[in-house]
Design brief:
Elements (H helix, E strand, L loop, with lengths): L17 H15 L24 H10 L3 H7 L4 H10 L4 H10 L3 E6 L5 H4 L2 H10 L3 E6 L1 H10 L11 E5 L5 E6 L3 H10 L5 H15 L2 H15 L14
Parallel strand pairs: 1-2
Antiparallel strand pairs: 1-3, 3-4
Helix pairs in contact: 1-9, 1-10, 4-7, 5-11
């Protein structure tokens, strides 16, 4: 979600039927429902060269150190409070994904830029908080966009926007090792293909349907892939460039 808006970010042109949207969405949902191994990218995990390197590891580490725990963030939520509380209570991670995450080992810091008014944050952060709660060695901290703006500007959405949530993985020494921006991979690929093609209302319908059906599996899977890549010395991070001025 683009910072400052209550749900989704880009205006979309109208005129595509919801039946056409449904066909596209079914494909995304089928992709997201594949076994975890099938969600792994076939391309190299190296980050795209378009990433802006303006934010330093020391800044990321300092932001993580100043961030809130999920419990403190949750207690302070005002926008979408009922949704946050409900998802924080109901978020579950499968035993298979817990096992994969625990096999990574090591100590990791997960810096999250999120805001309570953001629907994408609400539908992803509680599952990664659950993962961090149950897997030793993952320390998740949350900062608001006011503090996290340099992170958002360095790790942009595929179409070049600053977005929430933005997840950045740091290793035990505080070095940046990966990122996930805005949405889990199957959804962000679908949304990128359809933003500006379907109506804004239809885009909202598709994104909400994905989250309702997927129940956090895609974001947890991608976070574990990011951890596995970092352990292997690779970098899982797909971002875009800022729009030309």
């Amino acid at each position: 979600m683009k910072s400052g808006l209550s749900w989704f970010s880009c205006a979309a042109r109208r005129g595509v039927s919801r039946s056409a949207l449904a066909c596209s969405l079914i494909g995304a949902l089928l992709f997201a429902s594949r076994p975890a191994a099938a969600l792994r990218p076939t391309a190299a995990l190296a980050c795209a060269s378009s990433v802006n390197d303006s934010v330093s590891d020391s800044t990321l580490l300092a932001l993580h150190g100043s961030g809130q725990t999920f419990a403190d963030f949750l207690a302070a939520t005002k926008a979408r409070r009922a949704g946050w509380l409900g998802l924080a209570d109901s978020a579950r991670v499968s035993d298979a994904l817990f096992t994969r995450a625990r096999q990574v080992g090591g100590n990791w810091k997960l810096l999250v830029v999120a805001v309570d008014a953001c629907g994408d944050s609400m539908n992803t952060v509680p599952w990664l908080a659950r993962l961090a709660q149950e897997v030793p060695g993952i320390d998740l901290r949350i900062v608001l966009p006011a503090a996290g703006r340099p992170v958002q500007e360095s790790f942009r959405s595929l179409d070049g926007r600053t977005a929430t949530p933005t997840f950045v993985l740091l290793d035990a020494e505080g070095r940046e090792r990966g990122c996930i921006v805005e949405q889990p991979r199957p959804l962000r690929d679908w949304a990128r293909a359809n933003r500006g093609v379907v109506s804004l209302d239809s885009l909202h319908v598709g994104i909400r349907a994905f989250y309702a059906a997927n129940k956090g599996e895609a974001i947890v899977t991608e976070a574990i892939e990011m951890l596995e890549a970092a352990k292997a010395g690779q970098r899982h991070c797909f971002t875009g460039q800022a729009p030309a001025r």
